Amino acid sequence: MAPVSRRAALAFLASAALPLPAYAARKDDPHAALRGSLQTLVDEGRIPGAVLLVGRGGRILHHTVVGWQDVAARTPMRRDTIFRFYSMSKPITSIAIMALVDQGKLKLDDPVERTLPELADLRVYSGGGLADMQTVPAARSITIADLLTHRSGIIYHFTGAGPVQQYYRAHGVMRDTPVGRLPTDAPPAPNLTELVRRIGQAPLLHQPGAQFVYSYSTTVLGAVIERVTGERLDVALDRLVFAPLRMKDTGFFITEGRLGRFVTNYVATPGGLQAIETPAQSDYRDLNRLLDGGGALAGTADDYYRFGRMVAGRGAIGRRRILSPALMAETLATHATVDGMGPRPFQFGYGFQRGDAASEAAGQLPNGAVGWSGSGNTYFWVDPQTDGIVVFMTQVLTPPGFEALSLRLREAIMGPALKLIGEA
Fold this sequence. Notes:
Layout: H1 6-15, H2 30-43, E1 49-56, E2 59-70, E3 75-76, E4 83-84, H3 89-102, E5 123-127, E6 134-137, H4 144-148, H5 163-170, H6 192-201, H7 217-229, H8 233-245, E7 265-269, E8 272-277, E9 298-299, H9 301-312, E10 316-317, E11 320-321, H10 325-332, E12 336-338, E13 346-348, E14 353-354, H11 357-361, E15 370-373, E16 379-383, E17 388-393, E18 396-397, H12 403-423
Parallel strand pairs: 7-18
Antiparallel strand pairs: 1-2, 1-17, 2-3, 4-9, 5-6, 7-8, 10-11, 12-13, 13-14, 14-15, 15-16, 16-17
Helix pairs in contact: 2-12, 3-7, 3-8
């Protein structure tokens, strides 16, 4: 995927400004506001289509299905359409790790090399460029808690252009994904074991525990799950999370029978939406693909709603409990403050962002709610105090310059959703 210049993207947005949320004109009808806003974005070619669920606990208060699974083929979006979760995989993997902590199979302060010896004797970047890089020994081990909070020192190849990011690109310290990829990148790791090995050979950006940097940390947690359980990650996540919650369409692979429900993947460009992966071409059909618990799951809005119900239910749906209330509370508590990722600082738990008054005022995440989003502009939040749940699914990557789309989607959803939940 060729990078889009910020100037070109901003010119495109200026020439065809995104509409204000329909809720501004329909304050008395949140259902019409939600449907109208999303339909407008489809009609103007900003998103291919969408599925939105708003509910309170086990009751769906609103659902909208608009647009297309595939724009060119005019394949209608469906309520059971399957979407790439991208980073909305991270809360799921984090919950699986906490379930292993709950079972006494892990501790949050465990050094990661106890499970993954490939990550022993790590070194930290201290100066120089790619060709003359200087490093120093890590002052301490990376812990499971560091990985849950992205304070490990591990990075993503697309989180900047510094020497460590250049190292990741030059040595293929990445999985095969269109997110942030450049034509000059070395071949990506073919499997999770190899990716962990490459991470262990790469320099850390900072000392373990020093700061939050969005990263392959959750991907590494997937490898921890494999080693601790003795199961492949897809099998372990199914046993720990998907089967108990009846998330029947969520996983790393799209079988032939579900291919007709899998959405085409798009990227926003100055010329409009560009298809970058069709279901028939997708690596989700490859049973040997890298199992990345940080960004490679796919599933339906209803499946993710059930995950949200478990979060709202403090670790359980009815009698189906996967995490104790105490460990769920610890998962959602603030463990890091994040600055430099988005327009304002925010609080972060173990795999979940925490909303505050500022994020609610900005129309992004309600005060007291927890949630996260994915690169394809999937988005969810759960308010444990009200049992309010919002799950939004679409499938369009927004490279630098197109961030306004993500912000407007959330603005369009949050106000009407809060009204519906408050009146239920």
